[in-house]
């Protein structure tokens, strides 16, 4: 078995920026109310026999989180469509260090720019 760090891009979701969002995530910009969250980036550290199995394991972990509250309640769109953005084989030491983290954070975005530089 090997160890992998997988970065996923999730799309197809729709989370309106409202009081529920602010309650669960701690943010809601009144100027952004007309622009719901439509996607995210997230990473997972997994143990797998190969790159393809690592991607599937990471996707499974993320979809499990999106099938339970609060994400399933907040999301007015579909379950996220997940695409592997980057897969890196890592050492046992790095795997152990990263396994101490919650393995559940997200970086959300509200629109997709034509130019990738405009996204950030």
Written account of the structure:
The protein has 120 residues and is an alpha+beta fold. Helix content is 29%, strand content 32%. The chain is built from four helices and four strands; from the N terminus they run βαβααβαβ. The protein has helices spanning 19-25, 51-66, 71-74, 92-99, and strands spanning 2-15, 37-48, 81-90, 107-109. The protein is elongated.
How are the SSEs placed, and which strands pair?
Blueprint: E1 2-15, H1 19-25, E2 37-48, H2 51-66, H3 71-74, E3 81-90, H4 92-99, E4 107-109
Antiparallel strand pairs: 1-2, 1-3, 2-4
* Binned strand content: 25-35%
Number of strands: 4
Task: Outline the low-pLDDT stretches.
Answer: none
Helix and strand element order: EHEHHEHE
**Rounded radius of gyration (Å):** 15 Å
Instruction: Describe the global form.
Output: elongated
Structural class: alpha+beta
Main sheet specs: 4 strands, antiparallel
Question: Average pLDDT value?
Answer: 87
Quaternary structure annotation: single chain
Describe what is shown at a glance.
By secondary structure, this protein is an alpha+beta fold. Helices cover 29% and strands 32% of the residues.
List its salient traits.
single chain, 120 residues, alpha+beta, 4 helices
